[in-house]
Amino acid sequence: METECKTKVRLELEWREAADMYATLEASLADKKGQCTEEEYARLRVVATTAYDLAEQLRRDLDEHIRRHGC
Q1: Segment 1-58, tens digit of pLDDT
Q2: Looking at residue 63, what is its pLDDT?
Q3: Which of 18, 12, 26, 9 is nearest to 51 (CA)?
Q4: Model's pTM, two decimal places?
């Protein structure tokens, strides 16, 4: 029986959580459009962009781990 790589499991979980956070923020932005000031919307857009960047970095980290570790 093959054991699961704990690092891979952790990276997958972190990536999924970041991707979910980004999706939630994007949905919130769609709801807020026209309901808040342009400044508030711009701040929310920065937060969503940061969440996207985090999710992308975590996905790259996961891909790199899988490539190097072969798990």
Answers
A1: 567 899 999 999 999 999 999 999 999 898 888 898 989 989 999 999 999 999 999 9
A2: 97
A3: 18
A4: 0.82
Token couple for 26: 């994007």
Here the tokens at position 55 are 């999710």
- Domain ranges for the chain: 6-69
- By CB atoms closer than 10 A (0-12, 13-18, 19+), residue 55 is buried
Alpha-carbon span 9 to 11, nearest angstrom: 6
| 35 φ/ψ angles, rounded to the nearest 5 degrees | -110, -5
Q: Which of 3, 1, 5 is nearest to 62 (CA)?
A: 5
Separation of CA 50 from chain center: 9
